[in-house]
Specification:
Blueprint lengths: L12 H11 L8 E4 L6 E6 L11 H10 L3 E3 L6 E7 L4 E6 L2 E6 L4 E4 L14 E4 L5 E4 L6
Parallel strand pairs: 4-8
Antiparallel strand pairs: 1-7, 2-4, 2-6, 3-4, 5-6, 8-9
Length: 146
């Protein structure tokens, strides 16, 4: 039986990491999540089941990850990815991303973070998500790094 406990008290990354290390001394699977707030200006696009069995990204997804040139990591399952972005949008929006299920998570949502960056992606959050002409989220690509 798997039991999931969420600590919902806002805290610093350093304190959360210390608690994680303290609590994970047993055999439990533990991880950190990031809660997106109105003041942090961050969000994430989660693309589900886009990682091939050999660990590479599906071609369509790899193309977009390369174009966006922003921090991208594997989710805890290793089957999906999280593309971090700057934004002032709020809420959670489900969308199709080609053949893949995807969701934007902005202010008011949270995501489990691994720190396991997808090879060849930026260590910086560079992309920005804005409201598109039809009201749905759309990416604004960051300028190339100097």
């Amino acid at each position: 039986m798997k039991v999931t406990t969420y600590l919902t008290v806002p805290t610093s990354f350093e304190e959360a990491l210390a608690r994680l290390q303290e609590w994970s001394e047993g055999e439990q699977e533990m991880g950190l999540g990031f809660v997106f707030t109105e003041t942090d200006g961050l969000g994430v696009l989660v693309i589900d089941d886009c990682v091939e069995p050999d660990g590479t990204l599906a071609p369509l997804v790899r193309t977009w990850v390369d174009i966006l040139d922003t921090y991208t990591e594997y989710d805890p399952s290793g089957k999906s990815i999280l593309i971090l972005c700057h934004t002032d949008l709020k809420g959670i929006t489900d969308q199709k991303f080609g053949e893949f299920e995807a969701r934007y998570i902005f202010s008011g949502g949270w995501a489990a973070m691994t720190g396991n960056r997808v090879p060849g992606t930026s260590s910086e959050i560079r992309a920005k998500v804005i409201e598109g002409p039809d009201g749905s989220p759309m990416f604004r690509v960051a300028p190339p790094a100097p």
